[in-house]
Amino acid sequence: MESLWIKKHPLLTPLFPCIKIACIMTSDFLNIIVNNKQEEIKSIKKIIPESKIRIKAFAPREKRSFFNNLAQPGPTGINIIAEIKRASPSKGLIAPDLNPVELAKEYEQGGAAAISVLTEKNYFKGSIDDLSKARESTGLPVLRKDFIISSYQIFELAAIGADAVLLIVRILSGEQLKDYLNLCEELGLDALVEIHSEEDLENASASGARLIGINNRNLSSFKTDLSIAVRLVSMLDPGQIPIAASGIKDRIDIEKNLKAGINNFLIGESLVRAKKPSDFIKSLLGTNDYRE
């Protein structure tokens, strides 16, 4: 059941009209979404002040370790972070009518190590409600995937029961990244730090990040290059754990990354589009074949 706090939360209702995909792709997507996110946060704070959300964030809660589920290869040598994703700026609507409860259960049955839920609403059509429902329906740790630019959002995700947060290096200063990682530690949250370039990796390493999400997609242009993760993984520091994300569609893509030393994969669109997501996950893990 949704909490009263979730029902009243302004992220569950539109604040901005969705810009047409063609318009988004002619500009730097990150600049557009960060600007909108700043306005969202201002509006949210007027309704739920940070002092109140902070209290809720530090309240006792059930914690599931996202980090531990990815620190070692699973039984098949692979860990899948299965994503709940309704839409994207580059592909438009992917699965607007998906049921987060059913999908989360499918993911768990298929053998996923964790779940990622896109909560950004204007361009990905996600919501905090999707995250809450997904987490309530499984025993897996859940990552909130959004564009985090404020400590308020980190308090917020702890308050709704998320287990981990995505921090995108490209939209944060070095000081912000360190501060947010420290805050996550205080709150008992794991952090997946996303990079796309050598410079991003240098900044992530300087912050002490341990879980490194290597995004094959450039969020400014939305071009995807599967060689990005394979190239960057060799530059990680000892003790850093790589997760390849974006563009991974089948077992062949998985095997190319395995050869490079990557055992963790965040997969969204191909899973959401699958007729039987649990069977598709098993095919990625190498435990069965999958055909639509």
3D structure, described in words:
The chain has one domain: Alpha-Beta Barrel (TIM Barrel). Helix content is 43%, strand content 15%. An eight-stranded parallel β-barrel has the order 1-4-5-6-7-8-9-10, surrounded by six helices. α6 crosses α7 (128-136) and α6 packs parallel to α14. It is an alpha/beta fold. The chain contains 14 helices and ten strands. The model is unreliable at 1-27 (pLDDT under 50). The chain has helices at 4-8, 21-25, 29-47, 50-57, 66-71, 100-110, 128-136, 151-159, 174-187, 198-207, 227-232, 251-260, 269-273, 277-285; strands at residues 79-84, 87-88, 92-93, 114-118, 142-145, 164-168, 190-195, 211-215, 241-245, 264-267.
CATH superfamily: Aldolase class I
Strand order of the biggest β-sheet: 1-4-5-6-7-8-9-10
How far the N terminus sits from the C terminus, by CA atoms, comes to: 34 Å
Most strands sheet: 8 strands, parallel, barrel
The outline comes out as: globular
What proportion of the residues form beta strands (DSSP E)? 15-25%
Question: How many beta-strand runs?
Answer: 10
Query: Can you tell me the number of structural domains?
Result: 1
CATH topology: TIM Barrel
CATH architecture: Alpha-Beta Barrel
Order of helices and strands: HHHHHEEEHEHEHEHEHEHEHEHH
The helix-and-strand class reads alpha/beta
What would the average pLDDT be, to the nearest integer? 89
